[in-house]
Structure to design on (222 residues):
């Protein structure tokens, strides 16, 4: 392994704090209401409220668990879809229909729906996965247990679906595609270090960890 790669990854993490501060400042102006968010979630429950539900574009994978993510992360993700920094036609259309207040309310609702906090120390990774996690400096942003990010606008990864994590990592490496990919200089620099097989190994380990995330089934008849 190139000895400079971990140093580069940590430098990217340091630069990331600048972007995080800006995103957090943008989100501080609107207070979310979880009860209002519950009434606005009809457009979300058709995918995120069905256990095991799979997305078919651009490849088949389980839709991510968002119940239990922080409100700031959910707002950050929706904003990225709205701006086109995360490319996904369905999510772009949904996010584009939301006001800042809508995002804040939905974020407050889903943040309140998660499971119990998990232990600070996750189960040990195998030698290969541990080396990959170290190479990407993943814990530097997402926390030692991958469920307590250094900033709440970063996602919790522990227990997330492995196929979704793999899809997301690949998306950060895509360039010049109008409908697929994620524009994030920090994650792009990190993800491009890995082969697809290595991404799968990282995703498999992270998905095996105890999680605060959940799929909370909700009635369509409300």
């Amino acid at each position: 392994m190139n000895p400079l790669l971990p140093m580069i990854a940590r430098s990217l993490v340091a630069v990331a704090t600048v972007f995080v501060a800006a995103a957090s400042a943008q989100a501080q102006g609107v207070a979310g209401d979880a009860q209002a968010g519950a009434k606005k979630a009809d457009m979300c429950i058709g995918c995120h409220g069905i256990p095991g539900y799979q997305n078919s574009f651009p490849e088949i994978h389980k839709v991510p668990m968002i119940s239990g993510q922080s409100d700031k992360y959910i707002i950050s993700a929706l904003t990225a879809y709205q701006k086109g920094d995360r490319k996904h036609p369905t999510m772009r259309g949904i996010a584009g229909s939301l006001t800042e207040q809508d995002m804040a309310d939905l974020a407050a609702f889903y943040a309140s729906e998660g499971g119990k906090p998990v232990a600070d120390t996750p189960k040990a990774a195998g030698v290969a996965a541990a080396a990959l996690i170290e190479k990407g400096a993943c814990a530097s942003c997402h926390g030692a247990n991958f469920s307590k990010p250094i900033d709440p606008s970063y996602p919790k990864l522990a227990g997330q679906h492995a196929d979704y994590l793999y899809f997301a990592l690949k998306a950060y490496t895509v360039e010049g595609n109008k409908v697929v990919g994620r524009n994030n200089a920090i994650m792009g620099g990190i993800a491009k270090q890995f082969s697809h097989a290595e991404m799968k190994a990282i995703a498999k380990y992270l998905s095996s960890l105890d999680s605060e995330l959940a799929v909370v089934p909700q009635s369509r008849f409300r």
Summary: The chain has one domain: 4-207.
